[in-house]
Specification:
12 helices; 268 residues; 5 strands; 49% helix; alpha+beta; single chain; globular
């Protein structure tokens, strides 16, 4: 599995963030506002997927740590925290889950949280983040194909109703990520990379990505019948890749993830 090795000293990679088209602003400043220690925060969304527009918002995703008293008392702590703010004119959408909730989502075949965990666009990291990254290969199962298939279906229906390019690219990206994962056991979220590594990738993918860069909500200027054929082809490829995948049926690191959550909580 391809993972990004992170350490507390490495912090966010300024060069990687710049290459992803992110503005030169202090994204870490947003992390001071939620109120609980941040375990990690990475860039997700269009910048991670490789098709941002000039006016794309910046999505930060990650995990935070609730104190023990917020979990054992009468008042429930905020397992999910969200904040939308403005940093030097750029819209920043920050959302984090408590470490226990994030870990449970990891173990329930949630591809989104795995992509967030393994994002190379790191804004904030800790030793617990590094340990989660190391455990990630043991979370992957053959059933993650369903996550990517279902999300692609949702985005394709949205494209059919709006004609917008954005949901179309999300549908392509989801199916290609699922195919790549089933075949290689690696989580790859970048659409340009997937276009090169997955043989069934649509031939017009590069042109569609360029068009998306010009307009966040622009129309898909392509033959609808051809696009429908591409989607059908990718669904068939995902079905075949899942049937032939060497990934296990269930996570193999449940106890290790459990121990990590307990240890980090008590130390925190």
């Amino acid at each position: 599995m391809r993972v990004t090795r992170v350490t507390p000293e490495s912090g966010g990679s300024t060069a990687r963030l710049r290459e992803a088209g992110l503005p030169a602003i202090d994204l870490g400043a947003a992390l001071a506002e939620p109120g609980h220690p941040t375990v990690f925060a990475t860039v997700s969304g269009a910048h991670l997927y490789g098709f941002p527009s000039g006016d794309s918002g910046i999505e930060l995703r990650g995990a935070h740590l609730l104190p023990v008293r917020d979990l054992i008392g009468l008042r429930d702590g905020q397992e999910t925290q969200s904040l939308v703010t403005d940093r030097d004119g750029a819209a920043v959408d920050l959302a984090t889950h408590d470490l226990r909730k994030f870990a449970r989502m990891m173990l329930r075949r949630n591809g989104h949280v795995l992509e967030q965990l393994l994002s190379p666009l790191v804004v904030h990291t800790t030793p617990a983040h590094a340990e989660l990254v190391e455990l990630a290969p043991g979370v992957l199962t053959v059933h993650h194909a369903r996550h990517y298939r279902d999300f692609a279906d949702t985005q394709w229906r949205l494209y059919e109703s709006t004609g917008e390019l954005k949901p179309l690219l999300h549908a392509f990206r989801s199916l290609l990520t699922g195919i790549h994962l089933m075949r290689s056991g690696q989580v790859e979220s970048g659409l340009p990379v997937l276009g090169q590594e997955v043989a069934e990738a649509p031939t017009q993918l590069g042109e569609l990505i360029e068009a998306k860069a010009a307009a966040e909500h622009g129309p898909a200027e392509a033959d609808a019948a051809v696009l429908a054929g591409d989607i059908k082809k990718l669904h068939a490829a995902l079905d075949e890749a899942q049937a032939a995948s060497a990934l296990p049926d269930a996570p193999t690191v449940y106890e290790a993830v459990h121990d990590l959550v307990v240890r980090v909580r008590l130390a925190g």
